[in-house]
Amino acid sequence: MATTETQTLLTRLTALSQQVPEDLAEPTIGTEALLAGLAALRQQVPEDDALRRQLSHALSQALVAVERPLETVHRISFAPLQLTMTKVAIDLNLFEILVAKDEPMSLAELTQATGADPVLIARILRYLAAFHLLAETGVDRFQATAVTQTLTVPGFAAGIKHHFEVQLPAWGALPAFLAATHYQNPCDRERTAFQQAHQTDQTVFAWFMGGSAPPRLFEEFSRWMSAQRVGQPIWLDVFPLERLLPSATAPTTTTTTTTTTTAPTTAPASASPSPLPPLFVDVGGGVGHQCVELLQRLPHWHGRVVLEDLAPVVAQARPHAGFERRAHDFWTPQPVVGAGVYYLRNVLHDYPDEQCVRLLGLQRAAMGPRSLVLVDEIVCPARGAGPAVVDMDITLMACLAAQERTLAHWTRLFRAAGLALVEVVPYVMEGGHSVMVLERLVEGAGEGEEI
Ligand SMILES: C[S@@+](CC[C@H](N)C(=O)[O-])C[C@H]1O[C@@H](n2cnc3c(N)ncnc32)[C@H](O)[C@@H]1O
């Protein structure tokens, strides 16, 4: 679809959202042209990602605008059923069967392939077709589409299972939980809707790892964690590495110690002129995706890269000779002292403010005069946050008493930990993913300030 046609479609959709005429056939709205534009869009989605996002936003607004009130109530009420029925289809291997065949299949063939009751399978297929998860090419004939294909990707299928089995019960428990707390913002990780839903007193990660949850649930969660950003840019695609790791081309020696350090008391600008030690520490780095990405971008670098996480996670780290694996509990003092960069991705949004300040304080204590902390997280816009951000925010609330944060909130939180936010580098506009660059504040500054 040409850019000018896409722009015209956008204009028409926006006009529709602003004022839906009583009679959609009214010439002012140009319904026929709008429908033709939508048909063309189905054939070819614009390559330009910014334009695609604008269209997606305009379409969802237009959809709500054209709904009758009863349709709105219906859409909201039945939304959880899509997750339920997608899970059923995955359990039946339906998507994989259709994708493997690569041509329309009859109801009889699908009944035989799944071993399910023919009446039941017909009802399931009818549901999936109604929500465009597959194509209904004729009476009792079904074919895989690009969406069907997406749902066969192992990490995405794991995501559906994870949300159904772990998150959905917690979302369901949230209204009663909030009412019982008289609508206080949750800030105790051991008392959330998650604990109520899963009848445990463990936190999510403890429950997953060696707790009472079946091991399958943690495996699915891990697979989903690895898959959920596939195809999106990462921070290293936009971040000027040479700025962070000036020794990237000139190897130097570094110190690693298991004791806490006496941290400098001055701000970086007035600190020691010695070169930044070539160390990158990925704190709570999971199985080491970011360490691998960094090393791939710096193939000739001799600096050390350290992955830190809990012992069972580090044990599953990705095979790569270039980085060290260190079993480390991040609630204890940071053992790698004076690193160039302490990097935390998707860690802080799992914790309430007080714990974030504590965790950052432990990194600060290990920082050398020119060390940086990089926080790779969502920065929630002060206005107009999109579905991806708010879905995650409420899920964090329900499961971890945690949250996504605005820039103002992050800034206050960093200051309370004795760190100054010096730069924000966004790298995925849609989800607000950004890297925030932090330096040490002079000793005492910010401490005790309200978050
Ligand atoms: C949401 S995951 C983020 C993983 C990784 N940074 C990423 O972006 O893919 C949070 C990570 O924190 C780790 N973690 C949780 N508690 C920890 C602790 N006490 N010490 C070290 N790591 C911990 C988890 O094992 C997990 O790998």
Automatic annotation (TrEMBL):
GO terms for molecular function: O-methyltransferase activity; protein dimerization activity. Residues 87-153 form the O-methyltransferase dimerisation domain. SUPFAM superfamilies: S-adenosyl-L-methionine-dependent methyltransferases, Winged helix' DNA-binding domain. Residues 249-273 have a biased composition (Low complexity). Residues 249-275 are annotated as: Disordered. Transmembrane segments: none annotated. This is S-adenosyl-L-methionine-dependent methyltransferase. It comes from Aspergillus indologenus CBS 114.80.
